[in-house]
Design goal:
Structural class: alpha+beta
Radius of gyration: 25 Å
Largest sheet: 7 strands, mixed
Distance between the termini: 13 Å
Number of helices: 8
Shape: elongated
Number of strands: 11
Oligomer: single chain
Length: 321
C-alpha cells in the first residue's frame, strides 16, 4: 500500500463531537494475537506533568485521514465510518490525558486518523509469473534431457533453446520477486515494521543468514499476511492553523493479523494496548500477544464542534515513517 506523497487540501474536522461515549473492551479468552506497535515522537515534543506525576492534559481535534482500503471484502471494517473509528480511539486517548478540544486557541494537536487493511503479495501457487518460471524450468530440463545421444549440431541447438527458455523464466521470476519486495517494503513502512528500511531490499535479505534472521523472517511472514492497521499522526495544531505548515509531533502505528479477527470487535483492545505509547518513542517495533475482545459502545454525546475552519492541507501518512 503506497499512500500518495502530495498532501490534498481539505477542511480540518475538529471533533469534540465524538468524545463523550462509553467504550468497554471485554477479554475474549484465547482470542489474543500479535499486536504490533511502532511509535515515534519529535525530539522537541515534551509533555508536561502535574504535581502527582501524571501527564498534564493536552487538547486535540481529530482530522479525517480515512480508510485506506484493502483488497479483501470485509464487512467488519468496510462498514465503519470515520466517526465509528474515531470515537473508539477517543477513549484510550483520554486515558493518556489527551482530551477533546472545545476552543481552537487551546488546541495543541490535530490527530489525523487512518485505518485499513494491507494488500499482500500473491502466493507462489497463484502468481502467474512464478508459474511461468516453473514451466520454464520444466521445459529447460526437458530440452537438456533431449540432448543425450543427439548429434553435436542438434545438441548445440537444444542447448541454445534451453538457455533461452531459462533466461525468459528467470526474467519472470525477477519481476515477481521485485513486485513482492516492493509490496513488503511498503507494508513494512505503513505498519512501522522496519525503521531501518531493510524489508524488501537485497541487503535486508542477507540478514536471514545472521543472528537477526529469525526476527527478520518472523516480521516478513507477518506483513505477508493481511493485517488490520491504524495510523495516528499528531500535528501541531497551532502552527497548522496559523501558519498553514505541517509539524508532525508524534505518530503511532498499530496492527494485527486480519485472519481470525474482526476489526470492529478487536479495535478497542488494540487501541488500548497501543495507547501506552501515544506521544512516546518505542525505539523500534513492539510485538506482543494482546487479549482481544468485544466492545460495547454507549450513546455518543455531543460536546459541540469547535470549528470546521480554517481549511488546511490534509497530510496523508507517509509510506516511509
Amino acid at each position: 500500500m503506497n499512500p500518495p506523497n502530495t498532501p490534498k487540501t481539505a477542511p480540518i474536522l475538529l471533533c469534540g463531537v465524538l468524545l463523550l461515549c462509553s467504550v468497554v473492551a471485554r477479554a475474549a479468552g484465547d482470542s489474543g494475537d500479535i499486536t504490533a506497535v511502532s511509535s515515534k515522537a519529535s525530539s522537541d515534543y515534551k509533555r508536561g506533568r502535574l504535581p502527582d506525576g501524571s501527564f498534564q492534559p493536552e487538547y486535540y481535534s481529530f482530522g479525517k485521514g480515512g480508510n485506506w482500503g484493502g483488497s479483501i471484502s470485509d464487512s467488519t471494517i468496510d462498514k465503519l465510518t470515520f466517526l465509528d473509528v474515531a470515537h473508539v480511539i477517543a477513549e484510550p486517548l483520554a486515558r493518556q490525558k489527551y482530551l477533546p478540544a472545545r476552543d481552537p486557541k487551546t488546541t495543541r494537536l490535530l490527530i489525523m486518523v487512518y485505518w485499513g487493511t494491507t494488500e499482500v503479495p500473491m502466493s507462489a501457487t497463484e502468481d502467474p509469473l512464478y508459474n511461468n518460471y516453473q514451466q520454464s524450468v520444466a521445459e529447460y530440463n526437458s530440452l537438456l534431457s533431449q540432448m543425450t545421444g543427439a548429434p553435436a549440431g542438434v545438441q548445440a541447438a537444444l542447448n541454445d533453446e534451453a538457455d533461452s527458455v531459462l533466461t525468459a523464466g528467470l526474467r519472470q521470476l525477477s519481476i515477481a520477486n521485485h513486485r513482492r519486495d516492493q509490496i513488503d517494503f511498503n507494508n513494512a513502512a505503513m505498519l512501522g515494521y522496519d525503521d531501518d528500511g531493510l524489508i524488501g531490499t537485497e541487503y535486508g535479505k542477507n540478514i536471514e543468514h545472521t543472528a537477526l534472521g529469525t526476527t527478520y523472517k518472523d516480521e516478513v511472514a507477518e506483513i505477508e499476511d493481511n493485517r488490520y492497521f491504524v495510523v495516528l499522526m499528531a500535528y501541531d495544531f497551532q502552527i497548522l492553523w496559523k501558519q498553514r505548515k505541517h509539524k508532525l509531533l508524534w505518530q503511532t502505528r498499530f496492527s494485527i493479523r486480519e485472519r481470525d479477527h474482526q476489526f470492529d470487535r478487536d479495535l478497542p483492545a488494540m487501541a488500548q494496548y497501543a495507547s501506552q505509547y501515544f506521544g512516546q518513542n518505542t525505539h523500534g517495533l513492539v510485538r506482543k500477544q494482546v487479549p482481544l475482545g468485544r466492545v460495547e459502545i454507549g450513546t455518543v454525546k455531543s460536546l459541540g464542534v469547535v470549528s470546521s475552519e480554517p481549511a488546511a492541507d490534509k497530510a496523508p501518512p507517509p509510506a516511509k515513517p
